[in-house]
Specification:
By secondary structure, this protein is mainly α. It has 8 helices and 2 strands. The chain is 65% helix and 2% strand. Helix 4 packs antiparallel against helix 5 and helix 7 runs antiparallel to helix 8.
């Protein structure tokens, strides 16, 4: 290695300096300036496509997204077997009409458990299938009336004293509504 002014010169450093100098000259040399990588005709066709996309596809996508978000509480209520599904569905539709103002109420309602429904029906969930009955609620759709259901309970061995009060209440209600219908 040869020394120049007391320092060792490396052959790789001189080559690197030449490459840097050439790159600087090429970068600083004036060239044609282009605002785009595309030709003017290609720019026009891309602009036309983009305009049509924004005018037709984006609004449809936004409307579909708006609708999907607003029926989400209904889907949640159906999945959770909410007994007030029809009311939640109605609130979702009203929310669509009122621009989404009622949507948070439908969302909260879909996640809540009904308070009085369990007291009335013995369960806080409902079946939304036509063939499937409510859980825990006997169904009287097979042609059996309340009297027949009381007779079945009596056959099961439930004390007659408890059923006697139910029979008395049932007969009182039947008399009351029979008198109302006659009037």
């Amino acid at each position: 290695m040869a020394t120049v002014s007391g320092r060792a010169s490396h052959p790789g450093r001189a080559g690197a300096r030449v490459v840097i100098a050439l790159a600087a000259i090429l970068l600083l040399a004036p060239r044609e300036a282009h605002a785009s990588l595309l030709s003017p005709e290609a720019e026009d066709s891309v602009a036309n496509f983009l305009a049509l996309f924004v005018l037709f596809v984006v609004p449809v996508a936004l409307i579909v997204l708006f609708w999907m978000v607003h029926v989400l509480p209904e889907k949640i209520a159906h999945k959770r077997h909410h007994p007030q599904l029809d009311a939640i569905r109605t609130l979702c539709l009203l929310s669509l009409v009122f621009g989404g103002l009622l949507w948070p109420l439908a969302w909260i309602w879909a996640y809540t458990k009904p308070v009085m429904h369990k007291m009335a029906y013995g369960t806080d969930t409902a079946s939304h299938d036509a063939d499937e009955p409510h859980e825990g609620v006997p169904v009287a759709t097979t042609g059996t009336g309340l009297h027949d259901r009381l007779a079945r309970l009596e056959q099961r061995g439930i004390p007659a004293s408890e059923l006697k009060a139910l029979r008395a209440d049932l007969e009182a209600l039947e008399k009351k509504y029979a008198a109302d219908e006659a009037v």
